[in-house]
Structures are given as structure tokens and as C-alpha cells.
């Protein structure tokens, strides 16, 4: 506490958010506080402002979206009907640029179907968020004359049934999951691990391509001290990155630190068992999971990787890392790998 302030430098802000987490853990109030933070509805407009700042400050999301969307676009270039099943669609920020790209396709755009899957929200309208995302994307598709259909599903991923996805084998089928599989429970909580159930479902969907992006973290340890230390490493990179690039008084920076990083850190530190939903694993661990579930890794297109790499090196701070290992595109800050992206097929 003595070293912490939400308005100080990066490490003071980090200390503030971790002190809050420890305090909640000691008081045993972690899960109530976390539930309160989750059900606090920050407006999509505020989140969008914070997201804009995040996009401007660091390449992580921009490069992921660029790589994922171009990989899908090239794979589906000969198909007139494309169906994307997006696990963890959230606000759908990945898709407007994709829709825009499709609209200028020679020979006209294909018919695009998106199935947005999201965890149910607490309260009386569990599907409200994922449905609103659909309305926004539909407006966008209309503006660009792309024929569009949307299907919203608000359920725990391990309870989604194949029939609900309305799969049509004449469509080019994509499964997309960027940075949200960390919220699935694993073997330490449930004998039938929701992670494996999810991967088996993707395998049954039998997509033409499965784009999988993960948050690369080792703070899923059952031992508290190990987990705390790993989380500290991970978040210190994020806070240090914002400290280096964004002015301290920027309100959007504070929103990101409090509503996104702070909330996640609280969950990692102060929640246990099935209430701990922030459970990232490293890309090496996911590589094993995916192979074990019966997927084959597809190398990312050389030209896309080169363009992504050039963009990070020419337009962003020199401490951003972009690299490749075992066919994963890695992104990070000062040598710490934070995100990894890969492509697979059954």
C-alpha cells in the first residue's frame, strides 16, 4: 500500500491494483467484488474510447486482427458464403475492418454469417451484450453492402451444442477464438475440463480454418505464491508499456488499468476454484492441447507475417516484440511474450 497510487507511475499503479487484490483475498471478499465489477455495465462507448487508446498505444490487437482477418480472407477467397463462429466475440471490434475488406472483393462480397458466442451476463438479460454486438455489425454490413446474417449465443462454451450453430456444409467455415480461452475452467476444477470440451466441439464443427489467439501467461498455478509472482511479471509488462507510451492523466488509460487489468488481477489474486476465471496458459501448453484434441497446425502466410512484422517495427515503440516460434506469431513487450496467435485445422 505504501508504494501504491492509482495516479502515480506505472509501478505505483501496478502496486495499487495488486494491493487491492491482496486485501480482498485476506478479507475473503474477492468473488463479491469481482461479481460487482463484472456486472457494472461500462457503456460500449466508453469501452470503445479505451479500446481506441489501446489500439493507438500498442500493436497487440491491431496486429492480431490484421493477421487473423487476412488469414481468413485469403483462405476464403474462392467462397461466396462464409460463416464465422466467434467464441468470445464481446463487442465484435474485430469484424468491421473485415466486413469493409469483403465489400471490395472482386466479383462482389460473399454472404457473411457470424455466430457470436459469449458468456452469459449476470442479471435478467444474459444475451443483451452479444445481441447488441450483432445489431452494430448488421448496421456496418448494410453500410458496406455485404449480405449479412447474425446469430447470438449467450452460454458457457462447454454447454454449446453443435445443432445451435446451424452449420451449413456449403459455407466456408471459420472458428475464431482470440484471447478468451483463458476464461475456460481446466482440469484442476472440473474432471471433464471445459477447455477440452471446447476443443472437441471445435473439432466436431470441423471448420476449414480455426484461428486461435491466446494470452501467454503462466499464472494458472494452483499454488498461490507461484501464481501471484507470474501475474506480477505479466501485469508489470502491461503497466510499464502504458507508462512508457500514454500520459499519466489520460482518462482512458485509467479506464484500461482499472476496468480491465485491475479486474483481471483481482480475479487471479482474490478468487479460487471455479470463481477464478482468469486462467491463461502458455502457447506451448495450448500447442499440446490443440494437437491432443486432433488439430493440425497450419503455417501462417509468409506475406501476412512479413507485413505485420514490418508494421510493428516501423510504426511502434522499439520495445515491442514481434517474433515467431513453432508457427505461432508472438507479440510482447521488452522480451516478455504476452500474446500468441496460430492457425489450425482438424
From TrEMBL:
<feature type="short sequence motif" description="VHIID">
    <location>
        <begin position="82"/>
        <end position="86"/>
    </location>
</feature>
<protein>
    <submittedName>
        <fullName>GRAS family protein</fullName>
    </submittedName>
</protein>
<feature type="region of interest" description="SAW">
    <location>
        <begin position="270"/>
        <end position="345"/>
    </location>
</feature>
<keyword id="KW-0804">Transcription</keyword>
<feature type="region of interest" description="VHIID">
    <location>
        <begin position="51"/>
        <end position="116"/>
    </location>
</feature>
<feature type="region of interest" description="Leucine repeat II (LRII)">
    <location>
        <begin position="132"/>
        <end position="164"/>
    </location>
</feature>
<comment type="similarity">
    <text>Belongs to the GRAS family.</text>
</comment>
<keyword id="KW-0805">Transcription regulation</keyword>
<dbReference type="Pfam" id="PF03514">
    <property type="entry name" value="GRAS"/>
</dbReference>
<dbReference type="InterPro" id="IPR005202">
    <property type="entry name" value="TF_GRAS"/>
</dbReference>
Amino acid at each position: 500500500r505504501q508504494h501504491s497510487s492509482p495516479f502515480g507511475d506505472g509501478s505505483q499503479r501496478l502496486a495499487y491494483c495488486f494491493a487491492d487484490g491482496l486485501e480482498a483475498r485476506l478479507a475473503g471478499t474477492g468473488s463479491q467484488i469481482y461479481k460487482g465489477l463484472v456486472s457494472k455495465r461500462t457503456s460500449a462507448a466508453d469501452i470503445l474510447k479505451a479500446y481506441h487508446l489501446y489500439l493507438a498505444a500498442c500493436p497487440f490487437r491491431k496486429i492480431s486482427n490484421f493477421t487473423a482477418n487476412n488469414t481468413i480472407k485469403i483462405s476464403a477467397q474462392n467462397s461466396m458464403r462464409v460463416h464465422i463462429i466467434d467464441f468470445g466475440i464481446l463487442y465484435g471490434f474485430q469484424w468491421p475492418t473485415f466486413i469493409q475488406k469483403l465489400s471490395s472483393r472482386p466479383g462482389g462480397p460473399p454472404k457473411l454469417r457470424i455466430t457470436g458466442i459469449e458468456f452469459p451476463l449476470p442479471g435478467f438479460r444474459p444475451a443483451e451484450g452479444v445481441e447488441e454486438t450483432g445489431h452494430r455489425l448488421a448496421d456496418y454490413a448494410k453500410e458496406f453492402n455485404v449480405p449479412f446474417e447474425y446469430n447470438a449465443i449467450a452460454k458457457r462454451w462447454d454447454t454449446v451444442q453443435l445443432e445451435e450453430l446451424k452449420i451449413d456444409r456449403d459455407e466456408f467455415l471459420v472458428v475464431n477464438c482470440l484471447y478468451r480461452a483463458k476464461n475456460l475452467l481446466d482440469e484442476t476444477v472440473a474432471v471433464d475440463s471445459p477447455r477440452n470440451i471446447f476443443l472437441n466441439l471445435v473439432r466436431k464443427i470441423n471448420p476449414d480454418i480455426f484461428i486461435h489467439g491466446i494470452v501467454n501467461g503462466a499464472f494458472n498455478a494452483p499454488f498461490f505464491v507461484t501464481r501471484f509472482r507470474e501475474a506480477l511479471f505479466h501485469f508489470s509488462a502491461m503497466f510499464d508499456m502504458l507508462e512508457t507510451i500514454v500520459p499519466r492523466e489520460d482518462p482512458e488509460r485509467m479506464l484500461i488499468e482499472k476496468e480491465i487489468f485491475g479486474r483481471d488481477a483481482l480475479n487471479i489474486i482474490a478468487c479460487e476454484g471455479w470463481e477464478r476465471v482468469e486462467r491463461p496458459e502458455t502457447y506451448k501448453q495450448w500447442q499440446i492441447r490443440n494437437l491432443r484434441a486432433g488439430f493440425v497446425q497450419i503455417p501462417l502466410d509468409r506475406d501476412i507475417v512479413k507485413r505485420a512484422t514490418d508494421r510493428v517495427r516501423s510504426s511502434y515503440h522499439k520495445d515491442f516484440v514481434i517474433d515467431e516460434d513453432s508457427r505461432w506469431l508472438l507479440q510482447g513487450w521488452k522480451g516478455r511474450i504476452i500474446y500468441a496467435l496460430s492457425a489450425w485445422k482438424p
